[in-house]
Design goal:
Length: 349
């Protein structure tokens, strides 16, 4: 797997060029090396990993196919002995200070190459999809357990802690991100941080959560209600759920991202809630919880098969309450497979 991914990158590197990779997620994708300090130099025909002495054994174990150099000054280790060359760097991952030091200390022609490896990561292979499926299964099992035990008087932090503990009990290596548990008026805040607010009868309870397995993430959101929903709560939840369904029903490989957005936005317009949908519709999921492709940035692009992404419309009524419905899906030629296939009915707690 390691050489296959590096080979795909090498097809985009010209003879005499080098790609100096410093983003740790991209290094992990290309090599499966998981250490916290590394750089990778790739030419059209070779690749070499640099890390420090803490990870010497780990590098030899995880990446036996690649030579590794050990030290702390990665530019010195990887670039100083090269003849003057064109070196591509990940501009989005380098500070101005680091970039200027490279330019001033090394006689290479440096240029920024943004998004090259991220584009390779968009289409997932079978092993990646399997890990994301495992993360999603753990996430949804944990949610179903915890949501059944939710009671009036529990705090947002208590519910968050219970959910994250249960995900780890079911085999998660870690949580995918800081879980969002938002009750009552807090549910109108798209990325609310859990507080000591106690759950009350009549509250919306919005939970955005996910597990991580071997570096790969899950992402899911459901919104429930404590007790019987009021008319406005039932209407709002129905509007968002219908919009998400409209978007999912358009998805298949080869369709433009903008077509999915149009379906969701039209559904929310028809229900009268479009103005309350204030964030992006979704994003890719993989080694990062938010990665390419991002709805809103790739409108004209077509969805490729084996893309794993979220679709997550929401509507948020300030100081009142909000709803988001989110799933992680994998796209195929016939449509998609929903990896976080929880019920869509408004759950009454």
């Amino acid at each position: 797997m390691t050489l296959e991914r590096i080979n795909r990158l090498q097809l985009q590197i010209k003879p005499g060029q080098y790609f100096y990779v410093t983003d740790l997620i991209n290094i992990r994708y290309l090599t499966e090396f998981t250490g916290s300090n590394a750089a990778l130099l790739v030419s059209d025909s070779n690749a070499i990993l640099a890390t420090d002495s803490r990870y010497e054994i780990q590098a030899a174990t995880q990446v036996p196919e690649l030579p590794a150099v050990i030290g702390r000054n990665f530019p010195e280790l990887l670039l100083s002995k090269l003849q003057k060359s064109e070196v591509l760097v990940e501009g989005a991952n380098l500070s101005i200070d680091v970039y200027q030091k490279l330019v001033s200390s090394l006689q290479h022609q440096f240029s920024s190459s943004v998004g090259v490896i991220e584009a390779l990561r968009v289409v997932k292979d079978d092993s990646e999809i399997e890990l994301i499926m495992q993360a999603c299964e753990i996430s949804t099992k944990a949610y179903q357990d915890v949501i059944e035990s939710v009671r009036v008087g529990q705090t947002e932090k208590f519910i968050r802690n219970a959910l994250e503990h249960r995900m780890r009990e079911y085999g998660a290596d870690d949580i995918a991100f800081a879980s969002i548990v938002a009750s009552g008026p807090n549910s109108a805040i798209p990325h609310h941080e859990p507080t000591d607010r106690e759950l009350q009868s009549g509250d919306f309870l919005k939970i955005d959560f996910g597990a991580k397995v071997d570096g790969y993430h899950a992402d899911c959101t459901r919104t429930a209600v404590v007790g019987k929903p009021s008319d406005w709560q039932a209407e709002l939840h129905s509007a968002v759920t219908s919009a998400q369904e409209a978007g999912r029903n358009t998805i298949q490989s080869g369709i433009q991202f903008t077509e999915v957005e149009k379906a969701v936005n039209q559904s929310l317009t028809d229900s009268g809630y479009r103005e309350y949908f204030t964030h992006g519709l979704g994003h890719g999921v993989g080694l990062a919880i938010h990665e390419d492709p991002f709805f809103g940035r790739v409108e004209a692009a077509k969805i490729a098969p084996n893309t794993v992404m979220t679709i997550e419309p929401g509507a948020y009524l300030k100081d009142k309450g909000g709803v988001r419905v989110e799933d992680t899906i994998v796209v195929n030629s016939e449509g998609y497979v929903n990896l976080t296939n929880l019920p869509y009915e408004l759950l009454e707690l």
